[in-house]
Amino acid sequence: MVGKSRLAKRHVNPIYERRHMFISDTLPFVGKYIDEIDAALKTYDENAKLTNSQKAWLGFCVMAIFVTRTFCWAKFERACLGVRSSAALSWMFRRSAIPWQILLAASTVIVIRRFGIIRGRLVIDETDKKRSKSAKFIYNLHKIKDKASGGYINGQKLVFLYLVSDTVSIPVGFEFYKPDPELKKWKKNDEKLRKQGVSKKNRPPEPPRNPSCPTVADIALTLLRQFRPNHPCVKIDCILADALYGTRTFVDEASAIFGGVQVISQIRTNQNIRCRNREKTVEKYFSSYPGTRQKIGIRGGEKVTATVGSARLHVCSHGKKRFVIALKYEGEEEYRFIIAADLSWRTLDIVEAYTLRWLVEVFFEDWKICEGWGRLTKQTGEKGSRRGVIISLLVDHCLLFHPDQQAFIDDKLAACTVGSLIRRIRTECFLQFVEDLISDENRHQILDNLAKHLKNGIYELMPSSKHMSGITIGRLESTPSLKYKNAA
Hints:
single chain, 488 residues, alpha+beta, Transposase Inhibitor Protein From Tn5, Chain A, domain 1, 2 domains
């Protein structure tokens, strides 16, 4: 029926018509991305699929994070002007039979296929999520070191596996870290006894670690073992990690998982090495053999000057030779020490490869500020935290399917930043909302209902305690019968 209102055909209140929201219909690239995930799920489970309602819900959550930059059901409800209630959104999150355990892997598959990724580098790092001191029901809460203040805060720690390819970089795995309470209790007591001067033989022995509370390095190895069979078409050039993972067990096992691949990490300055049958710290060794000034390419870009020294040395704690590199950038006073498992690589190749580790830090910043995990992520329990992280990581993957982003990457130009791309998407959402609104015959009625709904339902006025209007303060004056007190 030409000229007939789309709203009238459906016989619904115009304000609740899905086309007239601040989050309007799911943008085409988001809908296409969710459809491709649904198709990719069969790679891991023939019976896995998403229903139409599940696809609509996932697409809405991705759009809502784009618009609000948070993961909060109440904000999602306000963004769509009440079309989807926070209770209904939460119910789907908790109860719907979405194959959560393979959702991120399926998304990774479609990114790998779309951009033709056949080789890459894996970066391992961890990040903290600060939580309130009063939080009780958030998954795996524990005390973590606050780098800013030097004290301790309540929070969560997550270990991430990040893939850096020649075209795009994406998160491909994560896991929550949980400290062993018994081991933590023993360490506290052991430190107390040591300060009292109790000898080691008279102190309680270290208890075995609880298998359900693996170390950060063990979690990283598990993520590596999961990645290889899930994505066998991707050839890994090297694995990059910081000093926390610079142990013999991690370096050897991580290398073996991918058939002897290069593993690059850091070691502490007081780590012992053996040279000419004499042991000394790596810091002392390189103080005797200072490096030379070299030009180093930072992540394939600008060249910077750094002092670099290297040697193939026997690292005592590893029980074997490692390629040890002392690196000091211009303006720095102290060396950092990098180790590599494969001795056949050149010094500058190892140093330039290690600069790629910084990319995961950029991802952490984007993920927390723009992709929903930084604010109002208060979903309780293991399901709440784990599924919240998965949806926020899907947002990161989905950005790569935006037409503008794809055009830049396909033309081998620099990709857009997350912040600028989300601003573009929010603009597109608003324009789509306005376009649908002005093209409808009942736009005046819709605007009236919209104004009423916004004022009374979504953005209602709240009472303020700053002003004394409506509050009885009481008598603030002298009492005649008590004037004699002044005379006294």
